[in-house]
Amino acid sequence: MFNCNDEREMVDITIEAQKIISCIYRMRERFGIGMVAEVLKGSRKAKILELRFDELSTHGIMHEVPLQEIKDLINFLVAEDYLELSNGEYPVVKLLPNAVLVIKGEAKVTQKVSQQPSRELVVEVNLFDRLRALRRKIALRENLPPYMIFADSTLREMAQVFPADHMAMIRISGVGERKLEKYGEEFLEEIRSFIEENGVVKSLVNRPMPSDSSTRPQSVRNPTQNQANKIPSHHQTYLLYQEGYAIEDIAHVRNVTVLTVQDHIVRCSLDGQAVRWDDFIPIGQEALILQAVNQVGREKLRPIKELLSDEVEWFTIRAVLEKHREIAEKE
User: Fold this and answer.
1) Which chemical reaction does it catalyze (predicted)?
2) Each residue of 277-307: pLDDT tens digit?
């Protein structure tokens, strides 16, 4: 039935649709929604680099759009018969005839969107802004860059969950025991004040996140926690790594080279910090590197590199060596 009270407005999303369709075409219609969205976002995950999707003209073409929003747009195009999903356990995104008309500029794509954000979203955004302001104040007081207090992703989760006590706060990704002890009460007080001032309903307070909290990074063990402004440089890098930043992003934020960040991660591993080495090892390269190590030993990197193709990066070799050093030490 036609809804005459529908207050949503029609928005032209043709440009976004063309980017998505173009990316699917360049990926030869062989991958699912998640992989397409990651390429459009500009992810540099191992699988994307291995398939050389970072060389596509559409890689990162929607870097300013949240990943979930890209996925939602792809699903919208499926629902509107511009795309289709194949059958099977791992559905692949395919182009339909309507998509060809869009990419040629012969058809427009429109979508209805709400004119006004929900009160819940407005509350979340307002609290996020207040938490960022508090972080800025603490950063000035501590003479630290803001990201060393909490990352934006951590503040955003606080604004979604409304933690009201320490138990709820420690479950927030990126908090950890050290930061909870040092900054937790100030942020909790700001959240409590916001709740009282804005009449936030109790159902929103301490609400669970949809993601699995068991995957939350552990707190960083830092020997200089009472002198935060004297944290060793490689530990500062590790803090960002623990909060989910990619190596390239850490280099940009800290104004250092990618090589420096890689060195810092190795140093932290030698210090006993946990590093997920598989994140840095493309599928299929580990076995090749181990074969080379068996031939020339692990004392020097260059002899290993000379036995491998140019696609194998220096840091991948270091990652494999560190991974198996840790395995050997546990045995």
Assistant:
1) Couples ATP hydrolysis with the unwinding of duplex DNA by translocating in the 3'-5' direction
2) 988 888 788 999 999 999 999 888 889 999 9
Query: What is the CATH T-level fold of the domain 10-113, as seen in this structure?
Result: Arc Repressor Mutant, subunit A (1.10.10)
The CA R_g of the chain, rounded to the nearest whole Å, is 24
Enter the DSSP assignment of 182: I
Which amino acid, one-letter code, is at 186? Answer: E
Return d(Cα 54, Cα 275) in angstroms, integer: 24
Helix (H) or strand (E) segment spanning residue 238: helix 233-242
Q: Which amino acid is at 28?
A: R
Domain 119-219, CATH among 3.40.220.10, 1.10.150.80, 3.30.70.100, 1.10.10.10:
1.10.150.80
Contact 289, 316 (CB under 8 A): yes
Question: Which stretches does DSSP call E strand in 115-205?
Answer: none
Q: Give the pair of three-digit tokens for residue 217.
A: 């990074």
Query: Is this prediction's pTM over 0.70?
Result: no
Where do the domains of the chain lie? 10-113, 119-219, 230-330
